[in-house]
Amino acid sequence: xxxxxxxxxxxxxxxxxxxxxxxxxxxxxxxxxxxxxxxxxxxxxxxxxxxxxxxxxxxxxxxxxxxxxxxxxxxxxxxxxxxxxxxxxxxxxxxxxxxxxxxxxxxxxxxxxxxxxxxxxxxxxxxxxxxxxxxxxxxxxxxxxxxxxxxxxxxxxxxxxxxxxxxxxxxxxxxxxxxxxxxxxxxxxxxxxxxxxxxxxxxxxxxxxxxxxxxxxxxxxxxxxxxxxxxxxxxxxxxxxxxxxxxxxxxxxxxxxxxxxxxxxxxxxxxxxxxxxxxxxxxxxxxxxxxxxxxxxxxxxxxxxxxxxxxxxxxxxxxxxxxxxxxxxxxxxxxxxxxxxxxxxxxxxxxxxxxxxxxxxxxxxxxxxxxxxxxxxxxxxxxxxxxxxxxxxxxxxxxxxxxxxxxxxxxxxxxxxxxxxxxxxxxxxxxxxxxx
Length: 436
Prior knowledge:
Structural class: mainly beta
């Protein structure tokens, strides 16, 4: 029987046929990415699948959130060349010990000061890959050194704005100081406070937290002015809301806790949509003390838009851009911790912690945290804000509640000198004084 041949393919060798198949695969588009300039809603939400977190796809499907996709008009979102150089020089200096603490590789001693990413190169099959990626993310945030922020917090129930609160927060990071080690006899890694200033019934409530570089129990205190009481809180309380809404201390900046409190597992790399407030590089003017203002982000929310039928918390003027992300599972060691596990999404280019999906102790999903950000660079010295954020989108799908947190430029400064914010500002005495 004569062999039949497909029209146009007769005479091809096996090698030629293989080459043709490769050529056709190159010409054939991959699974379609969300298109910049397109707004996704209930009519086309399916096109987001595979490029957005599952809870976000569901919000769009249910008509809660319209998603405007865009693209960045700059090619690199990185730390400064000096920071990258210091990171490269850190190669082989550090490792992670058995309790997930950052230590010196040569003698196993705890790292009390470092400048640059601790791990400029991470092997694909490194068993400590998850921990090292998270340490790089923390390093980027700690490079803000000392921060004061003023936040406006919008807390929602299923159909409307439930309450609005305002808070002041301070953060002192003991690592990532290029000009020398901070005085640190107690071995702190970070110190922080959060003070509620509005509404009246919550005014004066203050929480302070001390996280140590070593693997030892951290300390947290709350002052309740109505009771005139100082309460020492447990480490598990870091997973509870602190501003009258959904955001917890350990949600700060994506992951505000201590790596030794978690078990870590690398899940894989994904391309996902993340929210930005600007698609261009935003210049920053330095103050006389060397600090910079936070970006005053005016996020337009659904409840303010006449005729909008989506969720009242929906941010309407952020742009969603594709970012390459590492997905990392974090499981608490403390059985009293409110979360059963969470999945953290860390930027593959600059280690910014963009998002976190959170599961309860029965391992059922219940909450998602997004950080929205912008690439801000100092006009005079090139100082960058890579590693910090402009605000939060926090949605509790189980309780049908949500919180939107916006930083304001008034009262918010980044890279403050120690004389403006130091260890004494995080004592119990200063907490009580601040609350009055």
